[in-house]
Design a protein that fits this description.
Number of strands: 14
Number of domains: 2
Distance between the termini: 21 Å
CATH class of the largest domain: Alpha Beta
Largest sheet: 10 strands, mixed
Helix content: 25-40%
């Protein structure tokens, strides 16, 4: 178990709590680009200690409890990037995101480690927390439309992470959302994860479009429309991302690529809260927008129950896709009635989780001992 937090003489946080949402990637046609943050959370308490490493894990999945743990690896990588000496660490990880199901568990762990290390490196959780390495300051690599980067970089919100409460003997400050301008965090997370879609949504919340240029990973974030009601169907079986990617062809035909590109553009526009539409119209458009010919036709044959569920949901008019590389299924229901119809289509092989859209992304709370 993690001990009581300490504050150093410089006032820097010595113990923080980070909460990171589950994510679904691709959403059909947005292969390796689209991400959606979901209202299901992993939570990690991280304390800097004099030496050593302890990892306490709460959750059903077996994970490493040594230096190979993804949260630990991300913390170490962040301190290296910041040019700081490596501290001892005590971690308590509450894992709620299923592993190996296409819901971004590895992205959540990576983001948790990066955000925790950045917060521990800063004297407070205000604007200095968001600054990052000097080489990347002022670079709005994670952009929110209509929000200037300087405003987004200093915005904070007392969010649900604060409601989770501190441990015994601790007092918690307000939860601070990771800022839109934290481009360096996205780039580091992408370097560790290998693809930017899940980590972008985990950092920023909402619906994200990620891409790479010569400077690294970048992301654009929008708030999805209010009537969106995601429903996740989680099977008991696991599937590795690497194995799922192995089923993909090296080349696809031009007609398939062109059709999928059009659907991806349509999906990005349909997801935006700024684009007004009646619920029925949006549901029909979203159904068409989630069609994909790049990856799902090649992945679904390896998971027959998943393929059958996707087909059953779509026969009801529900926009349904693989969640990431699978084997979970994501239904992007519009309104409560369609969400209920989606839940009713589940088979015994799947557990069903109606979820909200997470609109805050990763959040960090400082935990200090009571004075």
């Amino acid at each position: 178990m993690v001990g009581a937090g300490r504050a150093g003489a410089d006032g820097a946080a010595r113990r923080v709590r980070v909460r990171v949402p589950a994510t679904s990637a691709n959403l059909g046609p947005g292969f390796d680009a689209f991400g959606l943050a979901l209202g299901l959370y992993d939570e990690v308490d991280v304390e800097m200690t004099a030496s050593g490493l302890t990892v306490d894990v709460v959750g059903p999945d077996e994970v490493a409890q040594d230096e190979t743990h993804l949260v630990v690896r991300a913390i170490r990588a962040t301190f290296d990037l910041l040019g700081r000496p490596q501290p001892g660490l005590a971690l308590r990880c509450v894992n709620r995101i299923p592993h190996g199901r296409g819901l971004g568990s590895s992205a959540a762990a990576i983001v948790a480690g990066i955000v925790a290390a950045a917060a521990l490196d800063r004297p407070d959780l205000g604007p200095e927390f968001e600054a990052g390495p000097a080489a990347n300051q002022g670079d709005p690599g994670v952009a929110r439309p209509g929000v200037p980067a300087d405003r987004a970089a200093t915005a904070t919100a007392a969010g649900p992470a604060a409601a989770a409460g501190p441990g015994p003997g601790d007092s918690a400050g307000p939860a601070t959302s990771v800022p839109a301008a934290a481009a360096w965090m996205l780039r580091l997370a992408h370097d560790i994860e290998g693809h930017p879609d899940n980590v972008a949504a985990a950092l920023s919340g909402g619906f994200t479009v990620a891409w790479q240029d010569v400077e690294g990973a970048r992301c654009l974030r929008v708030d999805p429309f209010a009537e969106l009601r995601p429903v996740v169907f989680v099977p008991t079986v696991r599937q590795s991302t690497e194995a799922s990617r192995g089923a993909l062809p090296v080349l696809v035909g031009l007609p398939d690529a062109a059709r999928t590109l059009g659907r991806a553009a349509l999906l990005a526009l349909t997801m935006s809260a700024a684009e007004p539409a009646a619920a029925a119209q949006r549901a029909r458009t979203l159904f068409s927008a989630t069609e994909d010919l790049l990856h799902q036709p090649y992945r679904l044959p390896a998971a027959p129950a998943t393929g059958e569920l996707v087909a059953r949901l779509r026969a009801l008019g529900v926009p349904a896709t693989l969640s990431g590389s699978g084997p979970s299924v994501l239904a992007l229901a519009v309104g409560g009635e369609q969400a209920a119809a989606a839940v009713g289509a589940a088979s015994a092989e799947f557990s069903v989780a109606p979820l909200s859209v997470d609109r805050s992304g990763a959040q960090v709370t400082r935990l200090d001992p009571e004075r």
